[in-house]
Amino acid sequence: MNHINTISDYCKNKRCIVKINESLKDYTTFKIGGNTEVLVLPQDKESLIDLIRIIKENNTKYVLIGNGSNVLISENHFDGAFIITSGMNGIMCDNDSIYAECGATLNRTANFAKETCLSGLEFAYGIPGTVGGAVYMNAGAYGGQMSDVLYSSDYLDTGSLEVRTLNLQEHEFAYRKSIFDENNDYIILSSVLKLKRGEKSEIEALMAKNIAARKEKQPLEYPSAGSVFKRGNGYYTAKLIEDCGLKGCQFGGAQVSEKHAGFIINKGGAKFSDVVNLIEHIKSVVLDKTGINIECEVKIINF
After folding, report:
1. Can 164 be counted among the known catalytic residues?
2. Which helix H or strand E contains 155, and what residues bound it?
3. Is the alpha carbon torsion for 31, 36, 41, 46 positive or negative?
4. pTM for this structure?
5. Which residue in the list 153, 176, 178, 257 is annotated as catalytic?
6. pLDDT of 117-169, one tens digit each?
């Protein structure tokens, strides 16, 4: 029995959705990606932990993502299991804390916080990712970031298959980085966010202000992976790119947004190679004209 049959048989008896030879492009905000031999969407942490055990026992290659919002995925065929955690999306409130599973979207979590009159997560409203992905990269916007509200996270150590807990300091947060960025054996299962009591109307107003700013300044009408490059020390990378005359620069179906130079958009039919080549071109031009080596924020998954 090959690993596809093994994983499929496992999923029949667990809270998992399994799809064979599935296209990945519909699972990313860039709308780019090839097919995977097997795609699995676990619906709870117990199913995910058992799935990882089965995968390891069968020496199956695997990739795990959340909402596919900060990734660029190869169009090659993936001979293995692609795991998407969006089904693991439970959210609960306990006084001034919110417990959220890794696959809960930031929009839904921010709305949940608003409805329970908890403030501090307004910055995350409109970020098209999951709680797990946001903790992984310490996502942020409008003066806030996950390290401002994170209390603890439970994660799976895939080496030992043990579930462990990290407090805030143990996350080793930095700008768009955490301990998870450096440890591929760790899978975030859930996080606890520590917020503050606030007025629902004020929370709602700030969320509305943030989403209006996003719609005004960002090319939300096109598929993209959000800001492609990290902000620099003492400069805004998008402004560097614009000042280098790169707005509107296009390789195939991939284009530097004319609305926001920090975004690469899929104008239609963009390929993995179009985006990669455009990223490298931007980096080269900016380095040549400014002497600054800008750093990519989007996770490139090539197989």
Report:
1. no
2. strand 150-157
3. negative
4. 0.93
5. 176
6. 999 999 999 999 999 999 999 999 999 999 999 999 999 999 999 999 999 99
